[in-house]
Amino acid sequence: MTPEHHFENTKDQYRARLLSSLMLIVGPIGLLVAMAPDLFGSTENVWEDPEVRLMLFIMPIIIGIYWMGRTHYYKWLSYATVIGAAAAIFVASVPDDNAADLWATSFLVVPILLSSIFLSFRVTIGVIIANLIGVFVFYQYGLKLSFGDVTVNALAFLIVNSVIILLSTYFRDLMELENQTTLTLSESRYRGLLEAAFEGVLIVENGLITEANAGIERILGYSPAQIAGRPVQDLLEAAFISGGEGVVDSSPVESVARAADGAAVPVELVVREQAFWERRLQVVAVRDISERKRVEAQIEQSLHEKEVLLKEIHHRVKNNLQVITSLINLQMEQIDDEEMRDVFRESQNRIRTMALIHEKLYQSQDLARIDFGEYAQNLVNMLLRSYRSQGAGVEVVYLMDGVWLPVDTAVPCGLILNELVSNCLKHAFVDGRRGCVTIQLHALPNGDYQLAVADNGVGIAPDYEQKMTASLGMMLVQTLAAQLAGTLSISGEDGTNITITFPGKKE
Hints:
It is a single chain. The protein has about 500 residues and is an alpha+beta fold. The protein folds into 4 domains: about 10-190, no CATH class; about 195-290, Beta-Lactamase (2-Layer Sandwich), CATH 3.30.450.20; about 290-365; about 380-505, Heat Shock Protein 90 (2-Layer Sandwich), CATH 3.30.565. The chain has helices spanning about 10-40, 50-70, 75-90, 100-105, 105-115, 120-140, 145-195, 215-220, 225, 290-335, 340-365, 370-385, 405-430, 465-470, 470-485, and strands spanning about 200-205, 210, 255-260, 265-275, 280-290, 370, 395-400, 405, 435-445, 450-455, 485-490, 495-505. It has a 5-stranded antiparallel sheet. Strands 7-9-10-12-11 form a 5-stranded mixed sheet, with helices on one face. It has a two-stranded antiparallel ribbon with strand order 6-8. The longest helix has about 50 residues, at about 145-195. It starts with 9 loop residues before the first helix and ends with a strand.
């Protein structure tokens, strides 16, 4: 049997602890007081004294009473000890006994009589009156003692102890009345808060629902009486509400509740564990999020429709740009001048550069950004096919950081890359010269980006600054760099190295 788990309420538990503690503390003191004359005033072997042996025999009984007072047998024990207390008074108050023995016995009688704290004040008065009458009748008529002997010894002894018991019982009732009033006010306030809560609230103990407010009836259709005592898992799909140890305060989590009509209701739960005396309770706040889920589904559907529409736009733009390149290609077939054909080819490549971005966006799950490293490789491969004769012996090296650029940054960067790589293929490797083109894109620690195109070809002419103003391609590079709010730097050591540094856009 496990103590402390069979009490009807916490008030009885407190009383049982008080009684058992008094028995364990005061009882041995009474034994020592009663044994003191034999221990210190006798020359005989104290352990052979019958009184000492009796006291030692009583000690295990007191310990047993202490243990029983902490179990669900405490009420029966209290009634039995009241009867035992009356019998002890009869024995201890016999006039022939030693006075020290008489008053030492009070250490045993008082805690035993204190078991009457489980009795009402009226019942306690009745027990005391019965004891007074019983002692008076027994000693005066049974033992034929004089009225004075009875009064001086037995009645005086009993009256002193009875006054103690009456006072303790009276003040106990006053304290309990005050505590009950406070508890009633607290219960009323608690009930008002529980019922006023907009969300549903469940009180769970050991996985079972012990209480519910009106909000649960509004959300799930169960009245508090219908779900009291039911496992919480019958209502909520939440494994962490178990009532076991180790459950901590949780953040809001989404779950599904089963309504009275069998419907699944999306809910949001907040579970907090509360310690109530030695009980572990869980307070579960339940919020109906059906409307929020409906709105979220509408928003998700709307976003999906817009994504489909945006992808279709990118697809149509790409197709229109391809139509334009096809028209330019038809026009090129009517031109015999090779220099003019090169001009048209450069325009085609610029259009394909923009069309490739729309193609990547159409194929991507992210409609706002593209993987510029993958895009750069596709763009350069397209240019190598366009300038297959010039780029036959050219190796391309990609040094990319896996940078994703937004569309309004990727378009000018793509056009810049188109112009710079085209210039490398057309001018850096003349007369079938073999070489290498290196393309780099890095994210800098300060949030900027750096795009660089370098080759190990013939290098740049000394008057390259004048030629830049005359070249449409380089003029376009400068304009696009300014559009990106970037800086352009050109180096002519070991070929040509052009670097553009531009700030990243804050998302």
